[in-house]
Each structure stands twice: as structure tokens, then as C-alpha cells.
Amino acid sequence: MKNNVTKQKVVDAASSLFFQKGFHGTSVRDIADRASVNVSLISYYFKGKQGLLEYAVTNYYEAYLEKIEESLEKTEGDSAICRLNELIFTIIHYKQMHHQLTCFIQRELSLDSVFVREMTVTYLAKENYYLKELFQETIGGSIGQDEKRYLFMQLKGMLITPYILLSDWKDQIVGEYAHEQFVKKYTKSIQKWIEFNTNISMERKNK
Amino acid sequence: MKNNVTKQKVVDAASSLFFQKGFHGTSVRDIADRASVNVSLISYYFKGKQGLLEYAVTNYYEAYLEKIEESLEKTEGDSAICRLNELIFTIIHYKQMHHQLTCFIQRELSLDSVFVREMTVTYLAKENYYLKELFQETIGGSIGQDEKRYLFMQLKGMLITPYILLSDWKDQIVGEYAHEQFVKKYTKSIQKWIEFNTNISMERKNK
DNA sequence: ATTTTTGTCGATAATTGATTAAAGGATTTA
DNA sequence: TAAATCCTTTAATCAATTATCGACAAAAAT
Hints:
2 copies of one chain form a homodimer. By secondary structure, chain A is an all-alpha fold. The first copy, chain A, has 10 helices and no strands. The first copy, chain A, has 2 domains: 1-46, Homeodomain-like (Arc Repressor Mutant, subunit A, Orthogonal Bundle), CATH 1.10.10; 59-206, Tetracycline Repressor, domain 2, CATH 1.10.357.
């Protein structure tokens, strides 16, 4: 079973190249070259370039949702804000561990294709549901529906910003523990934002 | 001089397609078809597909920076926070008026190519400079350098979020004045965030 | 031990995409 | 009106990419 090692080499090469040049910007030759394997293996293992993409992205999201559900189970019974904070940590942590794919997928998601639509209904809908549910509960019902929507958008924005403005902070992520450091600090900065917004919400309720 | 009308048709078609399918995902034929012109005109007017891209993006950024500089001149002498608020309004407004190109460029900017690097040094460096300058002044010197960096990243994130999470809010932007509505509301939500963070900063200074 | 399955390679077919050359209209300028 | 410039079309070329085929070796199963 030398199968797995070659297959993984291809996936790794593809992830890295998709990240650099985008899906349409990289050819199967590029991928095969970087992985030091023959071009035809890509068709052999994945039924072509599109298949390779689907394989990589599906894997990414399966594991992602698993982490999210794990986090939610672990914190069951805790206060909403605690659970939300933990969830955010989990999300940022996962994204950071796979930052190349994260960035690539985020980029590709803003395109208009059947594949994107499939991913959206299959995975993103769930992610959105979990997040929204918890956010609603945390923020309470004291602010307007409209305002809440904008806040939620801001939150979602914060969860993806580092992987879009990569060039702005990648110089900070060097060295052994840099990733963990970043996850901690960035998570904290989001949590501070949440705390502020729940306070706002409390104040209004009390008066 | 029927030149301009055809040229513009091509640019419009290209913008729309680049937005939907990305640069590498759209062929010159697609563009020509949508613009109802002959394929070779693209080479004739823009020296090829790459040239068309450069033309569109350069135009976008030239006008963008002009708006920014205009805004800064207009508010000269006002308080930092006022100027920042006005600048943010200007930026969101411009982006909203060209949301397809905004989204497309934002996406393309996370790629690794010589073109992207050129755009970065030519235009984004300036944008970043103006924004950072004003942000520093607004937020004051009372919080740590590190913390400030994260806040600045959050701010920049807020300025691009709507154009990455397009699918999340595009259903809200329907009807005649929807764009203006959105600009107003979204700008306000960012301004609220700024206000909060300057207060934080003040409090610490006072104690 | 031999048959079957699995993994790998080189070559190539088939498709698609970008660019150019040449020439005919149209429009402006002299 | 003639010349020059600009716009547009047709057709062809050039380049690159993906997918597939057939051969071949290694490993597993019988």
C-alpha cells in the first residue's frame, strides 16, 4: 500500500499550488511536477483535476465540521458566551492549521460555479447555522434584527480576515510557535469584540 | 469615435465575467460573446487578455485613490475621528458602486503573481498608508503596539468583508436605493466599532 | 507459481484558448 | 474627392492543457 503516500503528495502539491495560483491558474502538469509524479496519476487517483479539487475540499470541510461539532459537544451546558468563545477558538485554530487551503477555498468560494454552490449547501450552511444559533443566544434579543445582522456579518468577517489579508500579517507568523501564538492572540481580540457587544446589549436591556 | 462605446462594452463584459468566474476562469471568447463584439478586438484595444485586466484594474484604483485623497482634503483640519469616519464612508461608497470589480480584485489580490505585486506596491501601499496614518491618530498612543496591529487588521477586514461574503448579504441589496442604504448602515456599524475602541483607549489614558 | 490487482510511466489524441495577419468598411482629415 | 486613420471581421496559426491509452513493473491473492 504505497498508495497513500503518493496520493498525499499529490494533494499537498495541489493545495500549495492552488493557494499560490488558484485552481484555474495551475495545470495538472504543475501539480505532477511539484509532487514528482507522473501526470496521469492525477487522473488515476482522482479522475482528473476537478476530482482532485473536490477530494481536497471535501476532506477539509469534513474535518472542519467535525471539529466544530466536537467543540459544541464539549461545551454543552456552559453559558452561551463561553461556548461561542470556545467555538471561535476552534475555528481559528483549524483554519490556521490549514491556512493555505483555508485561503484558497475562501477565495474560490466567491466564484459562481456549480461546485461552489454544492459546497455552500453541503457545508457552509451547517457552519453558518451553528455559528448563528450561538451568536443569537449570546447577543440576546435586545437589539434590532437589522443591527444583529450587521454584527453577525462583522463576526464572520473576523473569522476570515486573516486568510484574505494574508500579506498583511504573514511576516508575523514566523518561527516555531508562531501559529499557536497567533491563534491565541487573534482569538482573544475577537472575544473582546464579543464581550463589548454583549455588554451593549445588556445595558439596553437593563434600562 | 465609436471607439469608446465598444471599448467600454468589452470592459463591462470582462468585469462581470471576471467577477463570476475569475480571471483564469474566463476566456477571451466568453468576453467577446457577452460584449457582442469580435474576439480580435480584445487584442486590438488592450493588447490581449492581460492588458484588458490591467486596464480595468488600473482604472479602478486610480479613481479609488482619487476619491480617498479628495476625502482627506475635504476634511483637512477636522478631528482625526471625524476624518476617519468620513474616509470610511468614502471607501465603502466607492466599493459599493463598483462591487463586482471590488470583489474580483479582492479575490485576485490573494494570489501570488507579478501583477498582484505590482498593484500592491503601486496602489495598496498608498491606501494602507492613508488609512494607517489616520487610524493611529484616532486611536491614540495609549494601547500596545501589538494590540493596535490587531485592531487595524480588524478595521481593514471590515472594509472588505461585504465583498467577500457577498452571498451572505446580496439578497438585502435589491431595489432602487438599496446600495445607498447599505453604504449608510454598514458605515455606521464600522463607526460604532471605532467609537468603542477610541473610548477604550481614552479610559486607559485617563486612569 | 501464476493469476489478478494495483501503481507508474511515456506518448498522444482531442480539446480549448490566445494571438495575429490580412483585408474590407467606415470615418475623419486634408 | 483622395488619403489617411481607425474600426471590424474572417480565417488561420500557435500554444498549452486535460484526459486517455497501452505497456510495464511491483505487489497481493489464489
